[in-house]
Automatic annotation (TrEMBL):
Residue ranges constituting the ABC transporter domain according to the UniProt record: 655-883
UniProt-listed InterPro entries: AAA+_ATPase, AB_hydrolase_fold, ABC_transporter-like_ATP-bd, ABC_transporter-like_CS, Galactose-bd-like_sf, P-loop_NTPase, Xaa-Pro-like_dom, Xaa-Pro_dipept_C
Compositionally biased spans, kind Gly residues: 259-271
Signal peptide start and end residues: 1-38
Organism, scientific name: Micromonospora auratinigra
Composition bias type Low complexity, residue spans: 237-255
The protein's name: ABC-2 type transport system ATP-binding protein
Length: 957
């Protein structure tokens, strides 16, 4: 936000900095030096080629399907300089745009990167077959054929491109299945993906078959809900995280695994002949299997067979491409056991395999920066050796990480990485046996599993640990077994095991086993919300007669501190899973034997760029400990005064404005009733004549003035002055306000220091690229033109890549090429969950830039929605043709078609119901070239119809 208030705040912040101690200045110098050392080199040029291509696949190999593709090529790629390639697959519910940032990272390292939208999503045709070898996998093979036919792609032999395959979740499954089906693949990096879809969605933790598994209804519902909207839902990999670990080469710009995508990624229309409206673009057999399982809570043999058709489990012995398997520890969808099974199966065939666990996953995103940097480095190292043929062999060592605490500088989580020579699997290298005690007893299974315990919510992480028992384990539906306080800390790396006994009057029971870490104050944490579902059959009616069973808990990485206790909970319900509908009372007891914890005791910490100066920082912080304690206490007191509640309806909405009214003391009403929302992925234009209330609305939004009535929510937080959620907004309102004696770059740095946010989060390189000031960024801003100041202000608004960007007349002072570039910047910015609200008088630019518009007149909203809906249907069409006179003669011969006057260089035609395609065909048959066909009605026409050509607003203040 740029205003005189900003300048004043910056001056006060700088004055405060000058009063700090020498020790704090030394810390800042160390941080600046570390940031400069870690700065990434400027990316080389690259070009892209986008096309919708038709490939032939299906069981017969001849069924056509259209795939929306983009090929990223290094600027120097040519027939004389052939480059290796990477197939980059997106996650479920995503599109090729979900992995754009990853593709740009990889092309910068010298790879040609081919991205595509999988069949059934986005603009691609076909139906979703869940990575079926005959469909999605064969589609990818045809894309390999296209790479092999290009003159700028390196070949191993005729028809065999030098290629690696990278993907997460849905894309990771494709990487494994493609490598098993096509020997041309030279290396793969599957991330957060599955081994056996049937076991992933129907797990049974005592070793039972999927037909006896417990249905993972929460995740399954999200997947099929995503397929139903033709491209929304969980995506396995999108975006990348900046930064590299110490020692990482310049080529370490590789993808970082994290969930992405989201609703709205596709058209929302099911194809003709879809099996069931509830399944959208899923194939009929997949839809039918899901409906059977979702209805009964059990899988039949046919459904299991179908899911296994799309699973790497049965074809791992065919994979000869070296595989780097990256799996998330915070993942209730595809836990660590999935990667473990893939690693064991691939290694058994003699293929090089490396396993890396990181602290993110489907529930935990990319994890802390240090962790995502490690994954990016390992990925680049793997591809460079096995695809480029550069660098030493990465080896098959195992790396993992765990959350170690908070960073002293940026207050973010810190993950510590570890490595060992050999992969220990889920059983670990060592074992710690912990005695448990507890009487057990009866537990009730409620009718239809309701109410149910909450352990996790997809994408929300370990919600149960946050609730701390309020809605976690429900009384009467669980029993607890607990250890004594640990005498020493234990590092758990792998899957713990425990033995239990159960009895049921029906002979069957569904149970959920959980392992909690309980601190000395009694606070219990369920690591990453992971639970072990169990279905037991053939049970005795009394627990004394029952046989013990061994339950394998999910794999975790966690340090349990000395003095903590371990608690095993056996519950009868879990919100994420299907439970038997019939009520019953089970008896549960320990099965004898200890709780067994796997360990990896000889793991070596992985050094990072933070290691050296962190020890120096410890000494400096000790000298100012008293001051820091005071700061923390003041911050906590201020935080307690803030309203930290979240409105559940708007928790995922970047901006929700409800019944906003602004009336001044003299009775003047600037805004009488404004009500709209801005959702992730949207670029929303705020339109209206002068004085309509646009700027007043933005000033209220940024806290520059208080509303008379109404509420504004940012990601569910009610907006008040000083609200912490304001840090998630970047803004340009009321024009830029810079310190004239500082250069453009120094102004940006001063602004960022004043925010108090981590230096590494600023993204200065991206901001300066957006500004496009070149060497002028080092000149004092008092010598800037208006356009230069505007461009610098836009770059300042984008510092930190805020999740919501609010811009008031951002193109003011920009020339036409800069306006066109700003259009592209805003459209690209509204990705990965970000959103943009822009106020502008340039209606043509709003029409080309914005996905949605809100039209305000006299303080009220007169229209809101997608731009195309506001524009509406056009009664006439504008044709740009090569020969207007010849075209007019052709059109005059068509019945009902009429050429209207005033075509502004083109022909304005009233087609009178004749399809545009027929008109174009007649012109082409007559030899007239047709360059463009567009509706005549524009946003400007709709705008004037809504507000009136002579409309004047109520007047902004």
């Amino acid at each position: 936000m740029r205003s005189p208030l900003d300048a004043a705040r910056i001056r006060r912040a700088l004055a405060g900095r000058r009063r700090r101690t020498v020790a704090v200045l030394a810390v800042l110098a160390l941080v600046a030096a570390a940031a400069a050392w870690a700065a990434r080199p400027q990316r080389p040029d690259f070009r892209t080629e986008s096309a919708v291509v038709t490939v032939r696949s299906g069981p017969s190999g001849i069924e056509p399907v259209d795939l929306d593709t983009t090929l990223y090529l290094p600027g120097d790629a040519s027939a004389r300089n052939r480059v290796p390639a990477v197939l980059l697959a997106h996650g479920f519910g995503g599109t090729k745009e979900s992995v754009r940032a990853d593709a740009e990272d990889l092309v910068a390292q010298g790879y040609a990167v081919l991205t595509w939208t999988a069949r059934g999503f986005g603009r691609s045709g076909g139906e979703i077959h869940l990575d079926n070898p005959d469909y999605e996998v064969r589609d990818a093979q045809r894309l390999l054929d296209r790479l092999a036919a290009r003159p700028d792609i390196r070949l191993d032999s005729a028809g065999d491109p030098r290629v690696g395959v990278v993907g997460g979740s849905y894309g990771g499954g494709l990487a494994l299945l493609l490598a098993a089906q096509d020997r041309r693949v030279d290396a793969i990096v599957p991330m957060i993906t599955w081994n056996d879809l049937s076991r992933a969605f129907l797990p049974e933790s005592t070793g039972g078959e999927p037909t006896e598994g417990v249905f993972k209804k929460g995740w399954a519902g999200i997947f099929f809900g995503g397929g139903g909207s033709a491209g929304s839902g969980p995506a396995g990999i999108s975006g990348s995280t900046a930064g590299q670990p110490e020692g990482a080469p310049a080529s370490a710009g590789a993808p970082s695994p994290r969930p992405g995508g989201g609703p709205g990624a596709g058209s929302g229309r099911a194809p003709g002949g879809a099996a069931d409206p509830s399944c959208g673009r899923f194939a009929a057999d997949v839809c039918a299997a899901y409906l059977r399982i979702a209805t009964t809570g059990r899988a039949d043999a046919a459904a299991v067979e179908l899911l296994r058709r799309s699973s790497p489990a049965g074809v791992l012995d065919r994979i000869k491409a070296p595989a780097l398997l990256v799996q998330g520890e915070a993942d209730t969808l595809f836990p660590l056991a999935e990667a473990d099974a893939n690693a064991r199966g691939i290694a058994a065939a003699g293929t090089p395999v490396r396993v890396a666990w990181f602290t993110g996953g489907h529930d935990g995103g990319a994890g802390p920066t240090s962790d995502s940097d490690r994954v990016k480095f390992l990925t680049a190292q793997w591809l460079d050796h096995y695809v480029k043929g550069e660098g030493a062999a990465p080896g098959t060592g195992f790396t993992f990480s765990r959350i170690a605490g908070f960073d002293a500088l940026d207050r973010g989580l810190v993950a510590t990485g570890y490595r060992v020579t050999d992969y220990p699997g889920l059983n670990g290298v060592g074992r710690r046996e912990i005695a448990l005690a507890g009487p057990g007893g009866p537990v009730a299974n409620p009718p239809n599993g309701n109410p149910a315990a909450i352990s996790s919510v997809p994408f929300a992480g370990a919600l149960g640990s946050l609730l701390d028992g309020v809605a976690g384990d429900i009384p009467g539906q669980h029993v607890r077994f607990e250890s004594a306080p640990l005498a020493e800390a234990v590092d758990v790396v792998g899957a713990p095991t425990v033995r239990i006994r159960a009895a049921s009057p029906t002979g069957e029971a569904v149970l959920f086993v959980k392992l909690y870490d309980v601190d000395p104050q009694g606070a219990a944490t369920l690591p990453d919300g992971l639970v072990a579902p169990v279905r037991l059959t053939g049970l005795a009616s009394t627990v004394a007669e029952s046989r013990p069973v061994t339950v394998r808990l999910p794999g975790i990485v966690r340090r349990v501190e000395a003095g903590h206790r371990l608690r095993v909970v056996v519950a009868t319900s879990d919100q994420a899973y299907a439970s038997p509908p019939e009520p019953a009372v089970y008896q549960v007891a320990l099965g004898g034997g200890p709780l067994t914890l796997p360990t990896v005791d000889d793991a070596e910490p992985i050094p990072t760029s933070a290691t050296l100066w962190r020890w120096v920082l410890v000494g400096l912080l000790a000298a100012v400990a008293v001051g820091l304690v005071v700061v923390v206490l003041v911050a906590r007191r201020r935080h307690r005064r803030q309203d930290s509640s979240i409105h559940p309806e708007y928790a995922g909405v970047p901006l929700a404005v409800r019944a906003l009214r602004k009336e001044y003391a003299d009775g003047f009403v600037a805004v009488s009733e404004v009500d709209f929302e801005v959702h992730p992925g949207q670029v929303v234009g705020l339109l209206g004549p002068n004085g309509a209330g646009k700027t007043t609305t933005l000033r209220v939004l940024m806290g520059l003035t208080q509303p008379t009535a109404g509420e504004i929510y940012v990601f569910g937080h009610r907006l008040v002055p000083g609200s912490p959620v304001l840090s998630r907004i970047g803004a340009l309102v009321e024009g830029p306000g810079f310190l004239p004696h500082l250069s453009g770059l120094d102004n940006l740095k001063a602004y960022w220091r004043a925010t108090g946010r981590p230096w590494a989060d600023a993204h200065f390189d991206e901001a300066l690229e957006i500004a496009g000031l070149g060497s002028s960024v080092h000149r004092r801003t008092k010598n800037y033109s208006h356009g230069m100041r505007q461009r610098l202000a836009i770059a300042q608004a984008m510092l930190g890549l805020p999740e919501l960007l609010v811009l008031d007349e951002p193109t003011d002072g920009l020339d036409p090429p800069q306006i066109a570039e700003m259009r592209r910047v805003l459209q690209r910015y509204a990705t990965d969950g970000r959103a943009v609200l822009v106020s502008s008088h340039l209606l043509a630019e709003v029409e080309q830039t914005c996905t949605h518009a809100v039209v305000v007149n006299k303080g009220r909203i007169v229209a809101a929605g997608p731009v195309e809906e506001i524009v509406g249907e056009s009664p006439s069409v504008l044709f740009d043709v090569s020969d207007p006179d010849a075209a007019r003669a052709v059109l005059d011969r068509l019945g009902g078609v009429r050429v209207l006057p005033d075509g502004d260089g083109g022909l304005v035609v009233d087609t009178n119901g004749t399809p545009r395609s027929e008109v174009v065909a007649e012109l082409v048959r007559a030899g007239v070239g047709v360059d463009r066909v567009v509706p005549r009605r524009r946003l400007e026409d709709a705008f004037l119809a809504l507000v009136g050509e002579n409309s004047r607003g109520s007047g902004d203040r």
